[in-house]
Specification:
66% helix
Length: 172
């Protein structure tokens, strides 16, 4: 497959992943555009393979991580969205609450589990492609996905899920 055609076929899944990471459509589209610009501009760095998809996801993840590092400590920007004049029906309210709960549960996952869950569950990546994008062994991807799904299930069922802090001990 042609490089540009392969890149173009990955755009919808890149957009879904970017929107899941940023929770804001315009910022997500900017992230996708920056990712595509970097990939096409540095096409000569791609080593080839079956598909360019894991390489694109790695580029996107790195751009996102660099931006997050730069903005860390700065003010949080909140989008101003127009509210609807008509009240929502009961089904829409229930669906909205469920989506909000899922978003909250995803946000509480450790970063490494959230990345794997979003890539595999939301973007539909294979374990192998996800492992290549994150530069991890497939077994690590599978264990992080299993732990992330379990934490999500427990959080959505109402259990209190705490992040475990590493236990330090004194060694003489």
């Amino acid at each position: 497959m042609d490089f540009l055609a392969d890149v173009e076929s990955c755009i919808p899944s890149l957009r879904r992943y970017a929107r899941a990471l940023l929770h804001h459509a315009a910022d997500a589209d900017d992230l996708v555009q920056d990712c595509l610009e970097r990939a096409i501009g540095r096409r000569h760095l791609w080593l080839g393979g079956e598909t360019v998809r894991p390489w694109l996801f790695r580029i996107m993840r790195n751009i996102h991580a660099n931006r997050a590092r730069r903005l860390h400590g700065g003010p949080a920007f909140e989008p101003i969205e127009a509210t609807e004049a008509e009240p929502a029906d009961a089904e829409a309210q229930t669906a909205g609450v469920a989506l909000r709960e899922m978003g909250t549960a995803l946000a509480r996952l450790p970063d490494e589990q959230r990345q794997v869950v979003l890539m595999v569950a939301l973007s539909g990546m294979s374990y192998r492609d996800c492992a290549a994008a994150l530069d991890l062994p497939i077994g690590t991807v599978m264990s992080r996905l299993a732990r992330g799904r379990e934490r999500l299930r427990r959080a959505l069922e109402g259990e209190v899920v705490h992040r475990r802090e590493p236990q330090l001990r004194r060694v003489k």
